[in-house]
Amino acid sequence: MSQSLLERQDQAGVATLTLSRPDAYNSLSLELMQALHAELDSIADDINVRCVVIRGSGKGFCAGHDLKQMLGEGEEEYYRCTFDTCSRLMQRVVSLPVPVIAQVHGVATAAGCQLVASADMAVAADNARFATPGVNIGLFCSTPMVALSRAVQPKHAMELLLTGDLINAQRAFDIGLINQLVPEAELETAVDTLAAKIASKSRKTLQIGKQAFYRQRELPLSEAYEFCSEVMVGNMLIDDAQEGIDAFINKRKPEWTHR
């Protein structure tokens, strides 16, 4: 991990990753995307982490791809590498075995909005703004569309994609892009509270649930129930399920082993 691009802090089972390109509104240069992907890979194997928070430094969350870098390169292979790297990064967020929370302030645009949509949950300051503005510069936000169209209803996604307009945090909440909006001064506290609640759970159980959620929603109803029934059978057989049920019956706090 490059300290100049990405910072990590761990506390009580929560890994906080801070995008650190404040002078460029944390735009996703190829190097920053690679650093973030590498750190997520590291977290995937870290049993001490049960929740991840992604946030931005400076005035905003993330302004999307670094267009200056992309225009400066100007070659097809570089463009292909950039968008393939971004696509793999967003899929890594989804496939990570622990939940990911986006902590949003300022703007989250284009691939920055994609990162919000890819996260399992998002909490935003009430003055945050969101957009997929590529259409305004002749570059339709096609890869952000993948995450956005899975996070909100199709007509809401199309409105954002076709107009390129900024929406405020209230609108983002109304269409389901974010879970909470809070006063900016309370943003960090709200995210800390949510992350701590998640981090108090069994990591193994969180992993089972997150993986099953994304798998079942792509299946027809009957297949989804069949799949999730098998997931619950497997879940019942893990140590933490036995511990959790026993703790509930005996009115005590469970002691997770994360197995």
Automatic annotation (TrEMBL):
Keyword Heme: no
Biological process, per Gene Ontology: fatty acid metabolic process
One Pfam assignment: ECH_1
Keyword check for Nucleotide-binding: no
SUPFAM superfamilies (UniProt xref): ClpP/crotonase
Keywords: Fatty acid metabolism, Lipid metabolism, Transit peptide
Gene Ontology molecular function: any one: hydro-lyase activity
NCBIfam families xrefs: PRK08139.1
Family assignment from sequence similarity: Belongs to the enoyl-CoA hydratase/isomerase family.
Entries under PANTHER family matching the protein: ENOYL-COA HYDRATASE DOMAIN-CONTAINING PROTEIN 3, MITOCHONDRIAL (PTHR43602:SF1), PTHR43602
Stated role: May play a role in fatty acid biosynthesis and insulin sensitivity.
Name of the protein in question: Enoyl-CoA hydratase domain-containing protein 3, mitochondrial
